[in-house]
Write a structure and sequence with these properties.
22% helix, L-leucine-2-oxoglutarate transaminase activity, single chain, BCAT-like_N, D-amino Acid Aminotransferase, Chain A, domain 1, alpha+beta, 8 helices, 394 residues, D-amino Acid Aminotransferase, Chain A, domain 2, ten-stranded mixed beta sheet, aminotransferase, disordered N terminus, B_amino_transII, 2 domains, nine-stranded mixed beta sheet
Length: 394
């Protein structure tokens, strides 16, 4: 990659518009939505028995797109909300052969007054459009698609569990349904959203986990697609994850060149330490290399910490050797993961080159900054006070 290319990548950050040359045609129009309520409601699972991503609500949202195939002008068809159902695809659909698909992860929450809320949905739409652009798929109008998602949540409001740590997980997904055995731009797409009521992502709840720093396998690399949520990013991580599980670890900590920290399987990762200049510093991997996902929770943590102005906040490359050195010198204070699914997850230890880098000793409490971030984010998400990041659905 040339220096000019790297500069361009460093200037594309989450929140900036992404130019998409793919033909869009007719935009999504929520006013044309058709709602077909189910006549056979699905059984609900008791809240305490919820397992992340295994139970799904009664309804789903679908919006098809075609490139001047079905309709003369092409574009997005009217949105439809109907009963949760299997999809019908041609065996030649290019999603099945070339992984032409991308997705998002977001949540809806029920606050103490029973009102439904979303957390910074505009950022999920920006990231979705970035992923669509990477696959040369048409973009979505963020406001229009958010309105469609809001209506889906309203239809299944009884599926949204109450209580801190509980929510309904939304999975907007775009797949190529174009039946073509050739590597090329798709002419038919299905955009859909399903919902899953969830509790804590990890069975441990808000308790420290152990990570396995994988020095053999690489998840993403500069110039790749690690900064988007395309399906091809995730399938190859399953085998390394099984190895991490065998070693007693909850997730893989992915490393880049020279064992530079990138992210955890389902999270961005943060370190809180005293740097070599004697300053307290919260640090996380930068986005400019293109090998780190621009997480909504990641961005929120950086913005919150920046407003507090109590310690240095930095986005830069961090190597595991640097982390080990800080630990050995007593400067590593806390480490935690962050993502939509987990919100904030304390890290107990990192297994690196057959040695445990212990962050939290057995019996010790979760670090105060980790707990503070959890409280700050969940207070906003569950509407404990008015905040622009918490968007009311009704």
């Amino acid at each position: 990659m040339s220096l000019d290319d790297l500069v361009v990548r460093c200037n594309i950050k989450m929140g900036e518009s992404v130019h998409n040359e793919a033909p869009d045609g007719t935009p999504i129009d929520p006013k044309l939505m058709r709602i077909q309520r189910t006549t056979n409601p699905r059984p609900k699972v008791p809240q305490k028995e919820l397992v992340f991503g295994k139970v799904f609500s009664d309804h789903m949202l679908e919006i098809d797109w075609d490139y001047k195939n079905v309709r003369k002008e092409g574009g997005w068809h009217p949105p439809v909300i109907s009963a949760y159902h299997p999809l019908s695809l041609s065996p030649a659909a290019s999603v099945l052969h070339y992984a032409l698909e991308c997705f998002e992860g977001m949540k809806a929450y029920k606050d103490v007054c029973g009102r439904l809320r979303l957390f910074r949905p505009e950022l999920n739409m920006q990231r979705l459009n970035s992923s669509l652009a990477r696959l040369y798929m048409p973009s979505v109008d963020p406001d229009a698609f958010i309105e469609c998602i809001k209506e889906l949540v309203r239809q299944d409001r009884d599926w949204v569990p109450e209580g801190i740590g509980y929510s309904i997980y939304l999975r907007p997904t775009a797949i190529s349904t174009y039946p073509f055995l050739g590597v090329g731009a798709t002419k038919e797409i299905k955009l859909f959203c399903i919902m899953s009521p969830v509790g804590p992502y990890y069975p441990e709840g808000f308790n420290p986990i152990k990570l396995y720093a994988d020095t053999l396998n690489v998840r993403a690399w500069p110039g790749g697609v690690g900064n988007t949520k395309v399906g091809g990013n995730y399938g190859p991580t399953i085998r390394p994850q099984m190895e991490a599980t065998r070693l007693g670890c909850a997730q893989v900590l992915w490393l880049g060149e020279d064992h530079t920290v990138t992210e955890v399987g389902a999270m961005n990762v943060f370190f809180f330490w005293v740097n070599e200049q004697g300053e307290k510093e919260l640090i996380t991997a930068p986005l400019c290399r293109g090998d780190v996902l621009p997480g909504v929770t990641r961005r929120s943590i950086l913005e919150l910490a920046g407003k507090w102005r109590e310690f240095k906040v930095t986005e830069r490359a961090v190597g595991m050797k640097e982390v080990v050195k800080a630990k050995n010198e007593g400067r590593l204070l806390e480490a935690f993961g962050a993502g939509t699914a987990v919100v904030v997850c304390p890290i107990r230890a990192i297994l690196y080159e057959e040695e445990d880098v212990v962050v939290i000793k057995e019996g010790d409490d979760v670090g105060p900054l980790t707990k503070r971030m959890w409280d700050a984010l969940t207070d906003i998400q569950y509407g404990k006070f008015d905040h622009p990041w918490s968007v009311l659905i009704d």
